[in-house]
Write a structure and sequence with these properties.
By secondary structure, this protein is an all-beta fold. The chain has one domain. It is about 0% helix and about 40% strand. The protein has a five-stranded mixed beta sheet, with no helix packed on it. β1 and β2 form a beta hairpin. It is globular. The mean pLDDT is about 90.
Length: about 90
């Protein structure tokens, strides 16, 4: 599926970075339709900046999964997410 911009909500701002919450029934990966697939967040490039974080609540049916993504690139060419190291 594609990004549903209405479900990408900024829930906090600290300095020059923002924290977003995103809830979707999409899977994390899968044949070009998953949240982690290239291009998934491209439509939100105007909002997402390098250094922002996304808390993603995935598969909101019978099983739930929470993932954290970091925005590593964001421009009209697209948005790239990575998996931050948490220590």
């Amino acid at each position: 599926m594609a990004l549903d911009r209405t479900k990408l909500q900024c829930i906090g701002v600290g300095g020059s970075n923002s924290l977003y919450m995103y809830t979707t029934t999409d899977v994390d990966t899968g044949g070009g339709a998953g949240v982690e697939d290239s291009g998934y967040f491209d439509d939100a490039y105007n909002d997402l900046r390098v250094g922002d974080f996304i808390l993603a609540n995935l598969n909101t049916g019978t099983s739930r999964e929470m993932k954290i993504y970091a925005v590593s690139a964001s421009s009209s060419s697209g948005v790239t997410i990575t998996f931050p190291t948490i220590s």
